[in-house]
Amino acid sequence: MVRLPGWRGLETLKSPDVTLDGQPSGVGPDRAVAMIEVSGLRKSLRTGAATVEILRGIDFSVARGEFVAIMGASGSGKSTLLGLLAGLDNPTSGSVALNGMRISDLAEDRLALVRGKTIGFVFQSYQLIPTLTALENVLLPYELNDDRGGWRAGVERARTLLESVGLRERMDHYPVQLSGGEQQRVALARAFLLRPPIVLADEPTGNLDSANGAHVLELLLRLNREESTTLVLVTHDPALAAHAGRRITLSDGRVVSDETQGAALRQVSSSRSETRLGE
Fold first, then answer.
1. Which range is most confident: 5-14, 193-202, 206-215?
2. What percentage of the chain carries pLDDT values higher than 90?
């Protein structure tokens, strides 16, 4: 079984008894429903005789359908936080709940099942399997997680997503034959394949030039809007964070600000109608 880098234990998922459906029904965030709840979250590491505190008591919630940007300088703990939200690591103390389920209390097999069916993850470095084509890379979460609807439905969904990100003619190409922007577009399609209620993105434009970064960001925002997901994006770029409806800033492992950005969100929504994708 092929293992997707960065996702532990997905090859064990073949049971439908654990699911976090929670699909948003509206365009905007549902403030009455917390899709992500973080309480007293701490993460520390032992380095010899010393203990390094990475996260020092984080508390916040993310509403269903909300788009949140997490900002902070290098070393502020933002990528560590994202890994904890995804269940890729365990907190030292505190908890993370997804749609009311505390994932920090789950055994690894159940956590892997919840993670696979609930979260789409976009990595900065794409994390494509080099021996698989673009289409096969997009299908990987379906193969590992989803036994509903049959293989043909999964292939059709993958093809539709690849076409939506402008890769209709590149489906049979391998990662080495794709540009960085094209590889990240494959990664976007993969993240949305199973219609996860939550998408987490770790510096999704960090390895791209400005033109490709802007294109990938626009595609991510469009897919997020069309699929009605809850989106949490980690970045150090204020211009990228300005597209979110809310900005959480970390410093030295603590939340130092948590601000809504209604005006910025309306401006971005207006500009979307003037942007043609795939150019």
1. 193-202
2. 51
Task: Return the structure tokens found at 275.
Answer: 């942007």
Its pTM stands at 0.80
Any residues with CB less than 8 A from the CB of 240 and at least 6 apart, and which?
Answer: 69, 205, 213, 217, 233
What are the tens digits of pLDDT across the range 111-141? 888 888 899 999 888 999 999 999 999 999 8
Q: What single letter denotes the amino acid at residue 232? A: V
State how far the Cα of 59 lies from the Cα of 31, in Å rounded to an integer. 17
At 32 the pLDDT is 61
Phi, psi at 15, each rounded to 5°: -115, 135
**Spacing of C-alpha 212 from chain mean position:** 19
| Pick from 56, 63, 125, 114: nearest CA to 86 | 114
Structure tokens that stand for 83 in this block: 């890994």
Residue 114: CB atoms within 10 A of its CB come to 20
